[in-house]
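Per your request, structure below.
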């Protein structure tokens, strides 16, 4: 095997991991039941549908125009765990394939949408989880940060996390040519994942999502 093949293999596997987690949400997935009773929006005080960007804004921000479309089977209001794929990863890295591990067990409301840009082989998703209060949202974010660090420092860290950075409100991971960005604000934890788009696109999308979160 050539040296270049050795270098490219982790990068390609990283992209595959990101794509599986961010986009292939109907393969071996187990939807989580509805979150409790009553109105989730009332419980969290936030309607995540009002936070996420609509198709026209995503088309403008990605620069893909009409080529950017929603993948129908990848637009859902419940976290999905890809159990079959998760079992192939080390325990500390299974969050890549598990939205319940990513967002935690205390979600009041959730929505995630994945878009595709076939001409440019691009995929991008936007997701938001609302919690009952700011403390619960903060705990979910802190738990995710710990999970990412545990994966990053494991033997599989390069494959599943790659380069990563975090501060009090944001977290980003860059395995290969793909990426994931997270932000916590008020009672909401937001996620943008992407492959085939520049990092700047993810930054713009996340900035606009965050701006929609009520103070």
């Amino acid at each position: 095997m050539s040296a270049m093949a050795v270098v490219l293999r982790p990068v390609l596997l990283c992209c595959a991991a990101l794509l599986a987690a961010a986009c292939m949400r109907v393969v071996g997935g187990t939807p989580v039941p509805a979150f409790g009773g009553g109105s989730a929006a009332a419980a969290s005080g936030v309607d995540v549908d009002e936070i996420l960007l609509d198709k026209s804004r995503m088309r403008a921000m990605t620069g893909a125009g009409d080529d950017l479309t929603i993948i129908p089977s990848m637009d859902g209001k419940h976290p999905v765990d890809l159990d079959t794929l998760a079992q192939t990863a080390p325990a500390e890295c299974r969050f890549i394939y598990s939205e319940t591990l990513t967002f935690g067990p205390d979600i009041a409301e959730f929505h995630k949408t994945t878009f595709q840009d076939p001409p440019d082989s691009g995929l991008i998703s936007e997701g938001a989880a609302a919690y009952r209060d700011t403390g619960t949202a903060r705990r979910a974010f802190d738990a995710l940060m710990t999970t990412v660090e545990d994966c990053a420092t494991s033997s599989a860290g390069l494959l599943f996390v790659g380069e990563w950075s975090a501060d009090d409100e944001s977290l980003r991971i860059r395995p290969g040519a793909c990426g994931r960005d997270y932000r916590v604000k008020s009672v909401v934890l937001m996620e943008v994942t992407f492959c085939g788009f520049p990092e700047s696109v993810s930054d713009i999308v996340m900035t606009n999502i965050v701006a929609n979160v009520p103070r």
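Residues 3-22 form the longest helix (20 residues).

Regards,
D.
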